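Lab meeting, item 3. Inverse folding demo.
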């Protein structure tokens, strides 16, 4: 692939990303009131997405075969404990990810 084509691809992706981020402000900006459905979705979707991500991450766990899902359970426990004590989502998710990676690379080999 030549450089010119790569530049065009990156430019189109950047333009679409910019438009997707600016479009809500254009549609709902000014004096127009944001529809209730949009406010509802904005409040509920983050929780639904997190639930879907948890299910997606755990879909391939084999509880009847070694390591019996232990790395995943321990990592989930780390996430929950960190979040209960620190109330920091980034720290909780990062700590759980580090714990999981250490477990599968060093402990449950």
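The presenter then showed the designed sequence:
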């Amino acid at each position: 692939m030549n450089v010119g084509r790569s530049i065009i691809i990156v430019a189109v992706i950047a333009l679409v990303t910019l438009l997707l981020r600016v479009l809500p402000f254009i549609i709902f900006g000014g004096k127009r009131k944001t529809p209730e459905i949009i406010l509802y979705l904005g409040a509920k979707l983050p929780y639904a997405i997190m639930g879907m991500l948890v299910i997606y991450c755990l879909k391939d766990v084999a509880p009847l075969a070694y390591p019996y899902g232990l790395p995943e359970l321990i990592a989930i426990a780390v996430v929950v404990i960190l979040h209960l004590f620190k109330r920091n989502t980034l720290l909780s998710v990062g700590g759980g990810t580090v714990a999981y990676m250490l477990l599968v690379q060093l402990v449950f080999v």
